[in-house]
Specification:
about 375 residues; alpha+beta; D-Maltodextrin-Binding Protein, domain 2; 2 domains; 11 strands
Amino acid sequence: MKPFTDQTGVKISFEATRDLDAILQTKVAAGNPPDVTAAPGIGTLIKMAKAGQVIPLDDKLDMSQLNANYGADWINLGKVNGKLVNIYAWAALKGLVWYDPKAFQAKGYQVPKTWDELITLTNKIKSDGGKPWCVALESQAASGWPGSDWHKEIVLSQSGPTVYDSWWAGKQKWSSPEIKQAWTTWGQQILGSGGSNVYGGPQYMRATTFGDGGQGLFTNPPKCYMFNQGSFITSFFDGYTPKPTAGTDYAEFALPDVSSSNAGAHVVSGDAFVMTKDTPQARALIKYVATAQAQDIWVKRGGGKIAVNKQVSLDDYPDPISKAEAQTVQTTKIARYDAGDLMPTDMRDAYWKGVLDFVQDQSKLDSILANLDKVQQTAYVGAS
C-alpha cells in the first residue's frame, strides 16, 4: 500500500480479523462500515449486495480500461445481479496436478496434455506397479472438500458453465445425468475401483489431512505420482521434512479439459475488494488495487499471488511454478467460482459428506445422490 499512500496522501487504517464476515455484518448493521473490505465470503457478499449494503463499482471505475486489462470472466465473477461489486486483484487456481519431475523422468512419464493422456498415464503407472494418485480429504468439520474440488472441476469441464451455474444455484438435481456423470468419471477413471488407483485406498483418503496429501510424492520410491490440489498447497509443501524445492522436487500442470467443447475451463478463487462505504479515499483505493502496479508488488514477492491484471508481465513471477500458474490464469476462457462455496451451508456440508461416503463405497452413488437431492429441496428455501 506504500505506493498508494505516497501517490495520494491517503492514510490507511487496517483492521484484521479471522471472523471477517460476522464483524463486517455487525459493522454494517451498526451503520459504521469500513470504506473498503477485502475478501468477504462469497455468500456474505451476495447477501449484502442484494440488500444494497455494498457499493456498485460500475460508475466508480474506468470500465473500458478494466475490460482491456481483465478477462471478461474475472469481471463477471465480481458481479451480483448484473452489477459489479467485487474487484479481483489476485487469483488462486484449483485443479492443479502436482508431481515430482525427477520421478516422472525416471519412469519416462510425460506430462499429459489431454484428459485421455491423463487416464492413459494413470493406467500406465498402475500397470508399472505404482499408485497414480494421492488423495487427502481430512479437514476437521470441513472434511471432504478436497474431493469436491475434483468433482466440481469435472462438472465445469465436462458439462460446461450453464450446467455448473444451474447446479450450484439449486436448479439442477444432483441425480441429473450431467452431475452424476462427473461423479462416475472421478470414481472410475481417477480413483479406480475400490480406490485402487489411490495410495492407501479409501481409509487413507478419509484419514489424511489435506495439507499432508502431497507427502507421498517425495518418498523413495514415490508412494504416488500425482496429487490434485490448489495453488496454495505449496505453503504446506514448505513445511515438509526435508523441504522440497519448487521446480526441482515438484512442478504442476493444470487438469486437462475433460471435454474439448469447454476448453480452458477452470475453477478459481482469489483476493477481492468491495466498497462498503462510498468515499473519495475508497474509490481511489479500489482503482489502485485493480492496477498492474499494485498487483505486481505481490507477484514479485512470491508466495503464490497471481495477478488478474493482464498487464503484469510473466517475467515478474519469481519461479517457474508461479509463472506457469499465471499463464493458466491468463489463458482461462471459462472461469467459475467454487460451487460448494456458492451453495447454502446445509447443501455444501451435505456435498462434502457425500464425497466421504462416495470414496468409501462408490456403489452407493445413487443413494448418495438421492440424499443430496433431498437436501437440495430444503437448503435453498430462504437462502441468500
